[in-house]
Amino acid sequence: MSKILQSAKLSFCFIVYLVAYIVRYPGKFPVATIVILLLLKSRYQEDFLKKSGLCIVKKDIVRFFLIFGFFYIMAFSVINSILRDHHIFAVLLYPALIIFELTFQVLNEEIMLRAIALQALSDKLKSPIVATCISSLVFSFLHLLLYSYSSEVFLDPLTLFNLFLFGVLSSSLYFKTGNIACSYAIHLAWNLNRFGRTHFSLTQLDYIREGVTFNFIEGSWGLFFLGVFLLLGYLGVAYRMPNIVIKARKYEGALTQN
């Protein structure tokens, strides 16, 4: 009965995470974050911070701000270049509300997909590489479903592949650091640039829906090359670093056997 209850709590976390994208009212993402964290705290007890990817120390905070600043500049440059090519200008409207919402929206996604789901897949499959690929495919598929439902826009193959690349990078960062600080920094920097502004067409002088812009921004070759550059750069710097999550689990397994 206890296992069923624990599984139900975890399932409800995913339901809350998904429902937050469907309903339309201000403050939905902060509310979803509170519910998710309370359920995870009840589910994992003393392992709550570690399991949810929130076990963060000082060096992780430094990493967060360095990565966020670097990637924010890169994302700003890439997105603005794409917008200019399509004769679109972006206006920042209601910045405080948008930043507040996006902060929690990204946090929910990182906790549920990069920490909870990725850990569960890695434990089940005993392979961080396979778990990373599956988690990244789910990340792409969820965007496909979301935009098909909310905007009636079918995402292009390159868009889905770029989302997959981002998932691989974020998952790899999680395995290397043992928390979501670095992947959260990249994700938040992109989303603040991408969704923190309203887009207007210079040729038609009209508002452009987010779903319309998603394919030619997230599905651009500029973003593809940025993703490949970041992934190769990360692999070049971090290939000697241990997989902290994997090492910790091996240690826990050895303690259990003893």
Question: Can you tell me about this structure?
Answer:
The structure is a single chain. It is globular and about 60 Å long. It is 78% helix and 4% strand. The protein has 258 residues and is mainly alpha-helical. It has a 3-stranded antiparallel β-sheet. The longest helix has 31 residues, at 95-125. The model is unreliable at 250-258 (pLDDT under 50). It has helices at residues 2-22, 28-44, 48-51, 58-85, 95-125, 128-150, 157-177, 181-195, 210-218, 221-238, 244-257, and strands at residues 88-91, 198-201, 206-208. A hairpin with a 4-residue loop joins strand 2 and strand 3.
Highlighted features:
three-stranded antiparallel β-sheet; 4% strand; 3 strands; disordered C terminus; mainly alpha; single chain; 258 residues; 78% helix
